[in-house]
Amino acid sequence: MRFLLLFMLVSSCAFTGVLSDHERRERKGEEEWEEKGSKRGLFILDKWEKVVESEGGEVRVVRGFGLPMDHGSGFDGLRKGLLHIGLILMEPKTLFVPQYLDASLILFVRRGEARVGWIHKDALVERNLKMGDVVQIPAGFTFYVVNTGAGQRLQIICGIDASESLGSANPYEAFYIGGGTSPKSVLAGFDTKTLATALNVTSDEVDTFLGARSRGPIVYVTEEPAGRETKHRNGGRGFLDDAAEWKIFPLKPLKGLLIWLFGIQEDNTVRAPDTYNLYDRDPGFRNNYGWSTALDENDYEPLKDSDIGVYLVNLTAGSMMAPHVNPRATEYGIVLGGSGRIQVVFPNGTTAMDAKVSEGDVFYIPRYFPFCQVASLGGPFEFFGFTTSARRNYPQFLLGQSSILKTMVGPELAAGFGVSERRLRDLVDAQGEEVILPSWPEPERERERREEQGRREMRGREWRSGKGVSPLLVS
Ligand SMILES: *[C@@H]1O[C@H](CO)[C@@H](O)[C@H](O)[C@H]1NC(C)=O
Ligand SMILES: *[C@@H]1O[C@H](CO)[C@@H](O)[C@H](O)[C@H]1NC(C)=O
Ligand SMILES: *[C@@H]1O[C@H](CO)[C@@H](O)[C@H](O)[C@H]1NC(C)=O
Hints:
This is Cupin type-1 domain-containing protein. This protein is 25% helix and 32% strand. It is α+β, with helices and mostly antiparallel strands. Helix 3 crosses helix 4, helix 4 (203-210) packs across helix 5 and helix 5 crosses helix 6. The site of one 2-acetamido-2-deoxy-beta-D-glucopyranose has 3 residues, from loops.
């Protein structure tokens, strides 16, 4: 059976239109930069595509970027660091049917509760997920998702690492295992005789099995046992018998089906990766103005497999994540709550974007580009996202106490700005906080600042004559 699936995987890969998309993708690589930016800002991603629409829910994806690979190399399907952001929405008591993707997934439960089952090595593992949980599903391995929250919609944000994707026109390709007529199971691509032989059942049984459901990839389920218990030597047979009669898909035979199909064990002793909760851990940084936490491969090993990092930030009203740069990764973010502004700067020191964002907006920050996030005065600003590297990110802060400006202050830097060292030190020391900075202008701070400024002005000419201050210092 595993051989069959391997064969299936290989053969499906061969016929998915890689060649026909070749030219389009090549052209896309060049135009992507302009094409992707929205009217609201160059780095806002708002072109959501509905990739799954079903009675029990939907999946939407906004495409991100990758580095186009050398098209002459023969690895046309590969794109380094290609990451899309997806949103899985499921109604209560629904199942996202078993499937595998040409992309690995990092799931983050934003709201609700879920049970995710997937095939890890030779075993089927299941994990219960709650709000804030992160779990990685490797590309090419079958998984399913059940909304287990009582009467609660499930919202999952996912990072779709498509760097090893087939490179088709879709953001990713799903190969449904479970599925009858819609979605069509990849099993249906084999002729009935092949399947009948491989499954060791009659052709009629195969037809029943594959013709069963047509209600889309996210279907209503019940935890109740199937109405009629059929006794067979092998759990799979019972599954086949009942398939035609299901109005509501019973969950119970699902595990049986997968175990039977893949010839695997349900083995709870296998050491499968656990999930990781972002809210339960201590934030990496916290002060009075907010907190931020980042998950890399050292915290959660499966991230290494996708080479993707995960982060979560919560700023209090009016606070700001100090201007910084990611030296190692492009960053994608999605606003979970509140509103704020994202400012991004071009290498040439001009503003690339200053966009207002609120709940649900997706933005990205190219590697090396300086940027900052500012919460609006109305309330906390919470955003979550992915970085295109699982290694520790070492963000470089440009301003604030832990900034490179502070670290490098000295005659060299002063000369670089064309001011005296004393003046540079005054400027750099004015901000006593680091990483997450308080709201500005704040009436009291403003008054203090003016008083301090008055004192400085008495220090002499040097201070007064300073015109044409570098853009870096003015923000
Ligand atoms: C196929 O099924 C028949 C009975 O339906 C059984 O006798 C036979 O052993 C099965 N073959 C395999 C290879 O499992
Ligand atoms: C973010 O911080 C605010 C308070 O500043 C708090 O009310 C809110 O619950 C926090 N959000 C999360 C997800 O922790
Ligand atoms: C700075 O760079 C951006 C992007 O390359 C360009 O659009 C803009 O015109 C440049 N501005 C200046 C003043 O050179």
